[in-house]
Design a protein that fits this description.
The structure is a single chain. This protein is mainly alpha-helical and 173 residues long. The chain has one domain. The chain is built from seven helices and no strands. One of its GO terms (cellular component) is plasma membrane. This is DUF308 domain-containing protein. Keywords: Membrane, Transmembrane, Transmembrane helix.
């Protein structure tokens, strides 16, 4: 067995262990993900602010937009890094309200679909009822979002880990 195969097997095992950790402790998974996103947002925000100083004379509107977006990303990154649970809750509630508002807005324009096709009209009603119910469910129990994200991350890590493990065992060069 060569070094590359060993690395694939080792990588696969690490991913499988990480997937188990994601399944066992969903809050830690979401918190870690939020902190990674926070760090990336902070770095990108600072990069945009620095870029503003380099182009502010040449591209006035673009520079101002970069500065504005850079400040927003920096603040978002700081919030995720230092007030992680609060930021996660805010995002969860924001998504819930978004789903509810989106469903209500779609109900107002649903008549347009009836003119086109009764099947699409009916499908649209069902989709918007589900969207409304999911939004209400998220408002009532935001923990569902955290668990869902953790399970998805766990599944992705498990599948990728198994794939690496199988590759490392089967393909010997």
């Amino acid at each position: 067995m060569n070094k590359r195969n060993i690395l694939y097997i080792l990588g696969g095992l690490i991913m499988i262990v990480a997937s188990i950790a994601a399944f066992v402790n969903p809050l830690a998974t979401v918190t870690t993900l939020a902190m990674i996103i926070g760090a990336v947002s902070l770095v990108r925000g600072i990069m945009l602010i620095i870029s503003y100083w380099n182009i502010k004379e040449e591209f006035n509107f673009k520079a101002k937009f970069m500065l504005f977006f850079g400040i927003l990303l920096t603040l978002f990154g700081i919030l995720l890094l230092f007030k992680t649970e609060f930021a996660i809750n805010i995002m969860t509630y924001a998504v819930a309200v978004w789903f509810i508002v989106e469903a209500i807005q779609n109900f107002f324009s649903i008549g347009d679909y009836k003119k086109f096709s009764s099947a699409i009209y009916t499908t649209n009603i069902v989709i918007n009822i589900l969207l409304l119910l999911f939004g209400i469910l998220l408002l009532l129990n935001p923990l569902i979002t955290w668990i869902t994200v953790s399970v998805l991350i766990g599944l992705i890590l498990l599948v990728a880990g198994l794939n690496y493990l199988i590759y490392g065992i089967v393909f010997r060069e």
